Amino acid sequence: MALEKLARFISLPEVKVLKIHGKISIGHLLVICEKERASHEVCIHCAKPSSSVYDHRWVSIKDEPMRGLSVTLKIKKRRYKCKPCNRVFTEPIQGVLPRRRVTQRYCKSILWACEKFSNLKEVRKAYRCSSGFIYTTLFKELQRKVSSKVNYPWPEKIGIDEHFFSRTGKIKTFATVVVDMKNKRPRALVKGKTQAELWDQLGSIPGRENVRWVAMDMCDTYKSFVKDFFPKSQIVADKFHVLRLLSPHILRRRKEITPSRANARAKKLLLCSVLPETQFTQYSEHIVYTFRYRRAILCHGWSVTRWIRRLNL
Predict the structure, then answer these.
(1) How far apart are CA 75 and CA 89, in angstroms?
(2) Separation CA 55–CA 50 (nearest Å)
(3) C-alpha span between 22 and 11 (Å, rounded)
(4) pTM for the full predicted model
(5) Cα–Cα distance for residue pair 238/177, rounded to 1 Å
(6) Cα dihedral sign for 85, 89, 94, 98?
């Protein structure tokens, strides 16, 4: 029972453990395995199924250490002969990359050890491998780790905007920035803003159907691109650009309703010198009423602006 649990813990997918030899004195564990027979295997040369076994080979694969013991998997692999192309190939093993003699979990374990151990000498002693192999595996795993974080599919909410990039003479070059709104980080940077440039540089990112909301300014180029590139998304006007359209009109109206003190004093003196007292009183009441009405409209406009600012788009 204990041996079966140990075999399930050590073995790879689709691999059957036949026997386990433990040499505690030298800190080594040898596991003899055999891959389970499948109905057929796909030829790596012509991609056609083949079920004709050519011969067998034993390969030694180094696995992740366990309780201070180095683990070696000795696997019996079948070689198939493909009749259509008349070539021989070896069946693959899940968890072991082609032409490698270590498992993928062994490489991930080296990355963990390099992050936790104090120096690489202890890593070399614990994993019984050379310094060159540690450096090579470490940088490959770090590159894979970074690429998995950067090259993820399109998120549900994104933002698109243009930024000035460079100037050549009088010609300005713009860059398009795509932002991941959920993680609050840039997702892609495209040099240019035309549809052809956007399609060419963003077409390789998977998961376009995941995008549901796109925050952007109402640029015609971006609108047509989003409708074609993200068919399931809805366009949301960016609040920054909405405020940018409203603010100049509100400020101009405010200057018309509430002029400066010097202008107001000059108008009052001019009216006093020209109009009689009765007409001046009536005109003043009309000005006060108009001022209050327009000021109410202005306050309503500013309240709309503050409400837009509070939106969390």
Answers:
(1) 16
(2) 14
(3) 15
(4) 0.54
(5) 14
(6) negative
